[in-house]
User: Which sequence fits this backbone?
């Protein structure tokens, strides 16, 4: 599907340019879906310190508590994402989610964090990842390994 979008736009004898990337809506949806299924900062970022006692949802969070946001749990929550384990970039292509605000305060998908300490590299990251993936798909044929060994996509909990 990315090729269906990419090939007519770039053409067989041209390289992908940065200006092509903003028109690659399906590819951007694919990248968002990868960031949803496998957020590089699933838990370990976003540490926040309660500087005073505070009640959240009726529960006391005492001063000195370090809290972490479990982004992985949010991006796999079936009440937020129907079929959360399926890879479905189309969910970002629907009319209302065309500009799905992954950089703002919509916490359904915030792979770069949110608020004043959110990732300052987020725009650079999205631009470069879009450009690299588009270029790699355009310049090479990607095939399954000839011996049939599947790629190991199992997750591990590390920094990223
Ligand atoms: C796909 C790539 C990336 C992802 C998913 C990502 C994700 C994140 C996350 C989740 C945080 C913590 C935000 C928070 O605490 O609310 C963060 C912080 C940060 N990121 Fe990124 N990041 C990426 C790429 C980059 C790049 C390319 C740079 C630099 C060019 C960068 C620089 C930083 C810095 C300096 C912080 C700390 C900000 C602070 O504490 O004030 N990141 N990133």
Assistant:
């Amino acid at each position: 599907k990315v090729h269906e979008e990419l090939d007519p736009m770039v053409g067989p004898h041209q390289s992908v340019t940065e200006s092509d990337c903003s028109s690659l809506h399906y590819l951007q949806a694919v990248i968002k879906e990868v960031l949803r299924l496998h957020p590089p900062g699933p838990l370990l970022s976003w540490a926040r310190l309660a500087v005073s006692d505070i009640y959240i949802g009726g529960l006391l969070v005492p001063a000195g508590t370090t809290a972490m946001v479990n982004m992985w749990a949010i991006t796999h929550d079936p009440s937020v994402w129907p079929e959360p384990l399926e890879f479905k970039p189309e969910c970002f292509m629907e009319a209302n989610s065309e500009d799905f605000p992954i950089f703002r305060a919509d916490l359904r998908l915030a792979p770069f964090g949110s608020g004043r300490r959110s990732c300052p590299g987020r725009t650079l990251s999205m631009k470069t990842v879009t450009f690299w993936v588009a270029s790699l798909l355009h310049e090479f044929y990607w095939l399954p390994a000839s011996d049939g060994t599947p790629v190991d996509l199992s997750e591990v909990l590390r920094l990223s």
